[in-house]
Design brief:
The chain is α+β, with helices and mostly antiparallel strands. The protein is about 50% helix and about 15% strand.
Length: about 700
């Protein structure tokens, strides 16, 4: 590792990530001075020469911890803690998104009937369907709506939308009841970053509408996703086909898209200027083209909403093109490191997001792989490549790039989405050339023609390329076994794979191979996960038990659709078994039900699932665990575990495991999350939202 001393700096964003991860793993919120104090101690220790490296590493970890806790404090805002409405809601539109049916609006500066200022959220997000007035970012809207708190995780360890909403300052979500009213248009002439953000949001929406007006149906929705970043109008069945064919990355505006826009502008403008000898011979047209490409890439990034993959890609393109302006070359892996560090310092919560993990995972792996290939080429004597080799080089490059990116992002895809596209290479062999050589050049031309109202000239041929991508996605997704559903892996497995992958990618000497041990450990840990024996949702409407064959049997196919689908996804299952069928298949020996409830026998223990109060007396006397969907108003001392309606209301969804020694392990959503600012605790009796 001493020989790779020039690579040590690449570990700084990883160490920042360790500090951020430690902060989010805490069960309670630390006091604000803890992080800065640890940074100060590390700075003092770094003055001792022998402790410099260790102190720098620990100081970077402490810095990650500090920026995470300060970011949490800075975005603190009220949030709804119960369902409200229908109630009158008025506010200023921040963002408008097109959906397949209707629109979704983000509102701020709210006035909500029945809520005082201290309880009014900073922002709410509303879905508006049916006939609605034309409105855009900056307009003031009034509408009758039903509001609810951001949804809690549907199972212990599941995706935490409440945490994501907290950092978005989103205090409620809901839907409009009836038609909205635009009470005031956008204020013209205001200055500042808010006005600029509104203008970009309005421009994004208007561009989307113009694309959808020219290209109808799915081709318009895909074109809008590629040009403006709005994906809400894509039909769900097409989105499933895109995921199953391994093409979902094409709809996330990131390195491929930003690089193509910058490259098209750079090459195109430089080529045009080169045709004018008077300019080409007297002026630095290469630098002019680089400056224009930076401006175009910046505009495209802002138009796409400046998401984490977009910002990462723009920062890298910026540094590369800045090198052209300054006549300097920049090392690619360092670009990634500085881009990651910048994002983590300003948005530390992004570490937990799938977009950050998959984007940087793919880029780091690709750069590391191509660095290794470049080293191998330098070791060989120069040779002239035959024409046939050159003809296959591009598809071979796509094949290799797709394979590396797929391997690098698979752990994150399985962890967050429980899905693995097996034929992604075939899908990308169709979609990437179509996007690179046809769709994106026409997209750039469409942007340039829009101010003149001539974008149809470019959008129509662009649509032909989109048709090819859609055909490829649907064809590949229809192949047998195109997508495999896998159970969610433990956090420890993902952490081990990430650490191993970084070790393998960031070092260049043979010591890098030690990273394979981390990857192998992660794979073994991923196999250690086990489905809960019982799941119950926080509303007390849905129960699920693990069947003898590893499936999932649910108490209702009507209630809790969202929770049921999420539980199946986390279990790596396509379909559930209805309660009565599971009872019949297992002969009533493992699962036995009547009108009052059910008894599940597993691991030598009996778990009573109580639906009606009449079952409590017997179950409290006979069962090892009682999960009651009704309040237990009398003592229930016999079982090891007792969970009633009030526990579900306070702590959210519960999961139970019967261990090999007969011990019953219980986890709850709020018990796992701890006492953190984004955990919404109920104020009153649940109203059944």
């Amino acid at each position: 590792m001493t020989a790779d001393a020039d690579r040590w700096v690449l570990w700084l964003p990883a160490l920042l990530g360790v500090g951020i991860g430690l902060y989010f793993a805490l069960p309670a919120e630390p006091v604000l001075w803890v992080g800065p104090a640890l940074v100060g101690v590390a700075l003092l220790a770094a003055r001792v020469e022998r402790l410099f490296l260790l102190a720098t590493a620990l100081g970077t970890v402490a810095l990650g911890f500090a920026v995470a806790e300060w970011r949490t404090a800075l975005v603190a805002a009220p949030s709804l803690d119960e369902r409200l409405g229908p109630a009158q809601v008025a506010g200023r539109v921040v963002l408008v998104e097109s959906l397949e049916k209707g629109r979704r609006a983000l509102l701020e500066r709210l006035q909500v009937a029945g809520l005082g200022p201290e309880r009014t959220p900073e922002r709410v997000r509303l879905t508006l369907k049916g006939e609605q007035p034309d409105f855009s970012a900056g307009d003031w809207l009034r509408v009758k709506a039903v509001l609810a708190p951001p949804r809690a995780p549907n199972a212990p360890g599941a995706f935490d939308f409440q945490r994501m909403a907290y950092f978005m300052e989103l205090g409620g979500v809901g839907y409009a009841v009836g038609k909205a009213e635009v009470v005031a248009p956008r204020e013209a002439g205001r200055r500042g970053i808010d006005d600029f953000a509104e203008a970009m949001a309005d421009l994004r929406h208007r561009i989307t509408q113009r694309i959808l007006a020219t290209l109808e149906g799915p081709r318009g929705a895909i074109a809008a996703a590629l040009m403006s970043g709005e994906r809400g109008a894509i039909p769900e069945d097409l989105m499933d086909a895109i995921r199953d064919s391994g093409l979902a990355h094409l709809l996330s505006i990131s390195g491929l898209h930003i690089g193509l826009v910058a490259g098209i502008l750079f090459v195109g403008l430089r080529g045009l200027l080169a045709l004018i000898p008077f300019i080409a011979l007297r002026h630095p047209i290469k630098k002019w083209a680089a400056a224009a490409a930076i401006g175009g890439a910046l505009f495209y990034s802002l138009l796409a909403g400046a998401t984490v993959p977009t910002v990462r890609s723009f920062l890298m393109i910026l540094l590369v093109l800045a090198g052209v302006l300054l006549d300097r070359r920049v090392l690619s892996m360092r670009l990634v490191a500085w881009a990651a560090a910048a994002i983590l310092l300003f948005r530390p919560e992004s570490l937990l997001e799938a977009s950050f993990q998959m984007s940087f995972g793919a880029v780091v792996a690709l750069i590391a792989a191509y660095e290794w290939l470049a080293d191998r080429r330098r070791e060989r004597p120069a040779e002239t490549r035959p024409l046939a080799w050159r003809l296959v080089a591009y598809p071979a490059g796509i094949l290799l790039t797709t394979l590396i990116a797929t391997l690098a992002t698979t752990p994150y895809g399985v962890y967050h989405f429980n899905r693995l596209a097996l034929y992604g290479i075939a899908g990308n062999l169709i979609a990437i050339p179509a996007t690179s050589f046809w769709i994106m050049p026409w997209a750039v031309l469409a942007f340039l023609l829009m101010p003149f109202g001539l974008e149809d000239w470019a959008l129509v041929p662009l649509g032909w390329g989109v048709d090819l991508v859609i055909w490829g996605a649907e064809t590949v997704a229809a192949w047998p076994g195109a997508a495999v559903v896998l159970p969610t892996m433990p956090v420890a497995a993902l952490t081990a794979m990430t650490a191993g992958g970084l070790w393998l990618s960031l070092w260049r000497r043979p010591v890098r191979l030690w990273g394979l041990a981390g990857v192998a450990a992660g794979i073994l840990l991923s196999l250690s996960g086990r489905l809960p024996d019982v799941l119950v949702d926080g509303q007390g409407k849905l129960l699920a038990v693990r069947t003898a064959d590893g499936g999932l049997s649910v108490s209702s196919l009507a209630a809790g659709r969202f929770e049921r689908e999420a539980w199946l996804q986390r279990a790596g299952l396509e379909d559930e078994t209805p309660w009565d069928e599971a009872e019949e298949e297992e002969g009533g020996d493992r699962l036995r039900c009547d009108s009052l409830g059910c008894v599940l026998r597993t691991g030598g223990r009996s778990l009573a699932l109580v639906r009606q109060p009449g079952a409590l007396l017997e179950d409290c006397r006979m069962a090892d665990a009682v999960i009651s969907l009704v309040p237990i108003r009398r003592t229930c001392r016999g079982p090891q575990v007792v969970i009633d309606r009030f526990d579900l209301w306070r702590e959210g969804a519960h999961a139970l495991w019967v261990e090999g020694d007969g011990r019953i392990r219980v986890e709850s959503v709020n018990g796992n999350r701890g006492n953190r600012p984004w955990v919404i605790r109920p104020r009153s009796r649940d109203k059944g939202l």
